[in-house]
Design brief:
Number of domains: 1
Number of strands: 5
Structural class: alpha/beta
Largest sheet: 5 strands, parallel
Shape: globular
CATH superfamily: P-loop containing nucleotide triphosphate hydrolases
Number of helices: 9
Bound molecules: 2'-deoxycytidine-5'-monophosphate
Strand content: 5-15%
């Protein structure tokens, strides 16, 4: 039996933490779809052509180097506007979503485009300032030399690009439940998500 949980939202809203926690709670598999775009972005930074990079993407590319850098994030957001890049990644995401035993996918367009029939759709968001502060603390803790102002500018640039692209823009699905984590501890956001999923599983 498959059961798909789609978790979308802007950068650093808490999607990753919530997705990992609910996947562990219910024993579902988890796919961070941002990694697919980051891996394509990293290949482009290394000199590849974006569409060929997406079409030739291999599982091991997802483990390559540090895909969590601000440069990889910006490169990901840039390749993500190209319709052929998005198209090349659709089948992999859809088959992951329907694997037996349940799956959580987090990204930007999971509830709207990749899995419009997902059993649960969450849209996790927070203000740009709160998200930038979280991302700054994360990058700083991992030894990246960045300033708060740079991180806020990066978050806003990605929001702008992700929300305004023609193909699969970032927006909540009509039937998504919106969780605003701005004033919420992450544990509270995780339990809200667990509650919604438990109810949907019946
Ligand atoms: O979730 P993330 O920060 O790792 O995503 C990096 C970029 O990849 C993001 O700015 C836009 C793109 N992306 C996308 O277009 N669609 C997805 N489902 C996931 C990520």
């Amino acid at each position: 039996m498959s059961f798909t949980v789609a978790i979308d939202g802007p950068a650093a809203a808490g999607k990753g933490t919530i997705s990992k926690a609910v996947a562990a709670h219910f024993g579902f598999a988890h796919l961070d779809t941002g990694l697919l775009y980051r891996a394509v972005g990293a290949k482009v930074l290394a000199g590849s052509e974006p569409i060929a990079a997406a079409q030739g993407l291999l599982a091991e590319d997802l483990d390559a180097g540090d895909l969590r850098t601000p440069d990889a994030a910006q490169a990901a957001s840039k390749v993500a506007v190209i319709p052929e890049v998005r198209a090349a990644l659709v089948d992999f995401q859809r088959s992951f979503a329907r694997r037996a035993g349940g799956a959580v996918l987090d990204g930007r367009d999971i509830g709207t485009v990749i899995c419009p029939d997902a059993e649960v759709k969450l849209f996790v968001t927070a203000s740009a300032e709160v998200r930038a502060e979280r991302r700054y603390l994360e990058l700083d803790a991992n030894g990246h030399d960045v300033s708060r102002a740079e991180v806020l500018a990066d978050v806003k640039a990605r929001d702008e690009r992700d929300m305004n692209r023609a193909e699969a823009p970032l927006k909540p699905a009509e039937d998504a439940i919106v969780v605003d984590t701005s004033g919420m501890a992450i544990e509270a956001a995780v339990s809200a998500a667990v509650d919604v999923i438990s109810k949907a599983r019946g």
